[in-house]
Amino acid sequence: MTLKLSHKNSKFTFYSRNLLRSLTPRVIYQRRLRYLLNTLNQYDRHDIESRVNYYLKHNTPFELPTDKSVQIKRYRKKGQSAYYYDLKEFLNYFEQQQKVAYRFGDETHVEPYPFLVKARPIGDDNANAVLFKLNKVRHFNFIEDSLSFREKSDIIVWRGAAYQPNRIAFVQQYYNHPMCDVGQTNPCTPSQPWEKGFMSIADQLRYKFILCLEGNDVATNLKWAMSSNSLCMMPKPKFETWFMEGTLKAGIHYVELKDDCSDIEEKVLYYSQHPEAAEAIIANAHEHVHQFCHPQREKLIGLLVLKKYFELSGQWQPGQ
């Protein structure tokens, strides 16, 4: 049976679109801003506002440090082009003199001032880390899975780079386990038996269970895994992105494992024997994914996050 991966992201398409955006006069973006903000009336306002407030938790004015923020007109690409273009797409809609503070990459520490970031620690003290949809070409990859859960093999799969202690310990313990098809993809010198090389998403989807392990921040495979008909298993997440991993509930959206994954055999056996329980969790995972699959709605939320950011930092005037 053929597996369809119709939502696999194309880097060529991503960069081509951003090249076209760079050729569009700024005045056109600014004229469209008011129209796009007015489309809020087409959606559930409470739902949109709750997501905006989740990403930007501040509700009182704040100041941006002069030496840590940059005017939009001085925003330049300095490596990490996917991050640059993802933010640039939205900055195009705002005034050139407005300033933002941001940080690209996998760092997750929280600064003493509000800044835009891809990922942050899950918790109550992360308000200064303002989540934005960054590096989406890599992370926001949703797929269509033509295999049902019951058609798949009773095995858990994982492939990834194993540089962090949690990943190293896991792959070394389970690379040869009969219920697991796991291995690291980073080159080793000398070669190690747990080095198994690349496995495509299509091949991973032939297994009932997909392990999602955090690395420097969130698990990159979590988003496509939750859009599949396989069951996502993972330790309780410690980091979150635009995907709102902090709202995911164990036993509802995914199967929670111990931090050292020592209960992995028990959980695989249970859900292999109780497919109806697995399918209920998979359905809830699909529902969570669904809210991120509407491009115009996602664009509106991103614009509203920046609008709120500029309002609270004193850079957006009523009637603007």
TrEMBL record:
This is Lipopolysaccharide A protein. Keywords: Transferase. GO terms for molecular function: transferase activity. Residues 84-307 form the Glycosyl transferase CAP10 domain. PANTHER family: KDEL LYS-ASP-GLU-LEU CONTAINING - RELATED, PROTEIN O-GLUCOSYLTRANSFERASE 1. InterPro entries: CAP10 (IPR006598), O-Glucosyltr/Glycosyltrsf_90 (IPR051091). The keyword Transferase applies. It comes from the Bacteria.
